Amino acid sequence: MLDKNGIAKRIAKELQDGYFVNLGIGIPTLVANYIPDNIEVEFQSENGILGMGPFPFEGEEDADLINAGKQTITALNGASFFDSATSFAMIRGQHVDMTVLGAMEVSENGDIANWKIPGKMVKGMGGAMDLVASADNIIVAMMHTNRAGESKLLPKCGLPLTGVGCVKKIVSNMAVLEVTENGFKLLEVAPGVSVEDVKNATAGKLIIEGDIPEMDI
Known about the structure:
Layout (H helix, E strand, L loop, with lengths): L3 H9 L7 E4 L18 E4 L3 E4 L22 E7 L2 H9 L5 E5 L2 E3 L4 E2 L14 H7 L3 E5 L10 E2 L14 E4 L2 E6 L2 E7 L5 H7 L4 E2 L10
Parallel strand pairs: 1-2, 1-5, 5-8, 6-9, 8-10, 12-13
Antiparallel strand pairs: 2-3, 3-4, 6-7, 10-11, 11-12
């Protein structure tokens, strides 16, 4: 199976030259470390930066440069800084080409739950609700199962929803799946993972057509 960096590396293959991309908290932030050499993309963070670079090396952190998850980041040449109002105007105005988010659950019709577990302390939904309501191209980076080994790809989400019918694609530690009107369509499997493994780990409806290739990462 893939680790978190493997998931991020596979998602980076979805980037296209000239894209403006928002990276959510967690695994998605790692995508900035794996931009293909032949393209240029601009990473946006809703706390007010366009032009995020990869994470800084240890000892080179600047405490004044952080992303929405309060992690220290780097800024590329030409990066710009602005207030949250301008940042969310970009998001709500649909000027972001791709959004990569983490998730606790995704349903087979593309609903996403990624902000709250009932009974646990939470500060709020943050920018996730705006992102899923405004973006047309939402990719979820997640582990396929929880720590108890239970599927996080479900017929219906059990946790409070962040967005409805919005997820287009999922890259997990086991597979790449497209969300269709008929369920999760299996596109690729991770190295060392079989189609049967994915089937056993997916509670929602899984569509398998033809031979499923292994991820090229």
